[in-house]
Amino acid sequence: MIDNFNNIFYLILFIVYLCLIGFYVYRCLFDPIGLTKEFNTGKESVYLVRVIGTFVLSLFLMGIYILFRPSGPSGTWIYFNLAFLLGLFQASYDTAFYFKLIDTETGAKNSLVDVIVGAFFLLTSIILILGLSDKIYAFSAL
Q1: For the chain, which terminus, N or C, has the lower number of CB atoms within 10 Å?
Q2: Which tens digit of pLDDT belongs to each residue from 23-40?
Q3: Over 80: is that where the pLDDT of 141 sits?
Q4: Looking at residue 142, what is its pLDDT?
Q5: Mean pLDDT of the chain
Q6: What are the helix (H) ranges across the chain?
Q7: Which pLDDT does position 139 carry in this prediction?
Q8: Residues 64-94: pLDDT tens digits?
Q9: Domain encompassing residue 91
Q10: Does residue 64 lie in a domain region?
Q11: Long-range contact set of residues 95-100: C-beta below 8 Å, sequence gap at least 24
Q12: What percent of the chain has pLDDT over 90?
């Protein structure tokens, strides 16, 4: 498994990434009320939180599959590039919302922690893409 991820650093980074996504999936699907209270969006947004959770669940399950498949991340460039784009858009939106550059008329709120988490996902995806580029852009034979 370590060889599939080039070294222990990338393997651990990928596992940490998956754990954080898994935590987010759990909160979206099984504790959406907690998220609606945290972001001050009200009970009316529970449905949308769970819908978002289903999208993130797909990313989480594919990550688990990549972790345990025999060829590891070989040929999975689309997964890592999608993770990069999601991290980019999340970090951009969270930062703009935190500094009140957009959506200033809503009662929703976020914190500096949200901005840091978005930046972490963005940086993690960049590090994984650069460190695993010889694997993820290679043809994958099952």
Answers
A1: C
A2: 999 999 998 898 888 888
A3: no
A4: 54
A5: 90
A6: 8-30, 32-38, 46-68, 77-98, 112-131, 133-136
A7: 74
A8: 999 999 999 999 999 999 999 999 999 999 8
A9: 3-136
A10: yes
A11: 95/119
A12: 62
Neighbours of 9 (CB within 10 A): 12
Tokens representing residue 121 in the block: 């996902």
What pTM did the predictor assign? 0.86
In a domain, residue 47? The reply is yes
Instruction: Give the tokens for residue 23.
Output: 């935590």
Q: Is residue 132 within 8 Å of 10, Cβ to Cβ? A: yes
Domain count, the chain: 1
Whether the CB-CB separation of 92 and 109 falls below 8 Å is answered with no
State both tokens at 38.
Answer: 């945290």
Residue 75: alpha-carbon gap to chain centroid: 19
Distance of alpha carbon 31 from alpha carbon 64, whole angstroms? 22
142 domain-assigned: no
Could you tell me the two tokens for 137? 């852009």
The CA distance from 40 to 5, in Å, is 40
10 Å CB burial of residue 106 (0-12, 13-18, 19+) is: exposed
Six token digits for residue 1: 């498994």
Q: Token pair 């890592």 is at which residue?
A: 80
Q: Is residue 141 part of a domain?
A: no
